[in-house]
Design brief:
By secondary structure, this protein is an all-beta fold. Helices cover about 0% and strands about 55% of the residues. The chain has a domain of about 100 residues: Lipocalin (Beta Barrel). The protein has a 26-stranded antiparallel sheet, with no helix packed on it. It holds the Pfam family TEN_YD-shell.
Length: about 325
């Protein structure tokens, strides 16, 4: 048996246990729930028991490819071609996705059956292997009749960077870049949509947009940053949308100030959001956020003062202020 380890932050502890090979075999979260892991002789994960009590198993072939996965009675088989490319999979014996490739080994099509229709995505490439077209189709699987399709074309600049997308029956969307691909602007069918000005670190400092942008831009958004690189302010030439940002020493956002309202954010010793306070001339509202030790949301203590719940033991939330949640055997 190997050693164990633990991590404590803000009085909350998460522990791990390792085998002699240094592999994690048990993880205990802050609620005391356990997740266990088993491996084969080649260090491949073969079984995992989750915090929610679910068990998943994995099987591999001699070359290490995943051939079968099991999840509480849901059995998925994975099939490959002679080049080790995945070709199709089945779920409890029923066909699922299928993959097809061209002579270069590039993915040409992926398809599946949905509500009695064959749904597929077809891919086209140039001689450099770059995606040039993506066509989505819906067909009758028995007759092959095409029921619906939509195609999107892709183009590239001289540097090989993607710079144009043309959807069916719509003007092309183009983006202008510089250097190694930093965005400088966007156009729709030749009409400027937005332009960006950046500093020496390539951070956005001015965004011009509206009314065909450029010198005729209706709006101009300026952004400034703290010495640590955090967003410090955003000012629009319509003052009602101005924002200033405040951060604590841990890098957490603690304040957003606007002309009409200010939002203040409080955090626990572990860095989890504990409260949001909204301030305005005639408004002062504080919304608390309670979590269990593992970080799962608990019922609002002000809306549910009689609640005695302190943790979700299986790491699944059963209810909140608005909804009740039910899970199947696969934790969905």
């Amino acid at each position: 048996m190997g050693k164990g380890g633990q991590h404590t932050q803000g009085g909350l502890t998460r522990s791990m246990e390792y085998d002699a090979a240094g592999r994690v075999i048990s993880l205990t979260n802050e609620n005391g729930s356990h997740s266990d892991f088993s491996y084969d002789a080649l260090d491949r994960l073969v079984q995992q028991g989750g915090f929610d009590g679910r068990t998943q198993r994995y099987h591999y072939d001699l070359t290490g490819k995943l051939t079968q996965s099991e999840d509480e009675g849901l059995v998925t088989l994975w099939h490959y071609d002679a080049s080790d490319r995945i070709t199709h999979r089945t779920v409890n014996g029923d066909p699922a996705e299928q993959w097809q490739y061209d002579g270069h080994g590039w993915l040409r099509e992926i398809s599946h059956l949905s509500e009695g229709h064959r749904v597929a995505v077809h891919y086209g490439y140039d001689d450099k292997g770059r995606l040039t077209g993506e066509r989505q189709t819906v067909e009758n699987p028995e007759t092959g009749e095409l029921l619906w399709q939509h195609e999107t074309k892709h183009a590239y600049n001289e540097q090989g960077l993607a710079n144009r997308v043309t959807p069916d029956s719509l003007p092309p969307v183009e983006w202008l870049t510089y250097g190694s691909g930093y965005l400088a602007g966007m156009k729709l069918g030749g009409t400027p949509l937005v332009e960006y000005t950046r500093d020496r670190l390539h951070r956005e400092t001015v965004r011009s947009f509206g009314s065909m942008a450029g010198s005729n831009a209706a709006y101009e958004l300026t952004s400034t940053y703290t010495p640590a690189g955090q967003l410090q302010s955003q000012h629009l030439n319509s003052l009602v949308y101005d924002r200033d940002y405040g951060w604590n020493d841990n890098g957490d956002l603690v304040r957003i100030s606007g002309p009409r309202q200010t939002w203040e954010y409080g955090y626990s010793a572990t860095g989890r959001l504990e409260s949001v306070r909204t301030l305005a001339p005639d408004l002062d509202i504080r919304i608390p956020y309670a979590t269990d030790p593992a970080g799962n949301r608990l019922p609002d203590p002000e809306l549910h003062p009689d609640s005695t719940l302190t943790a979700w033991p299986d790491n699944r939330i059963a209810e909140d202020a608005h909804y009740v949640y039910h899970y199947d055997e696969y934790a969905d």
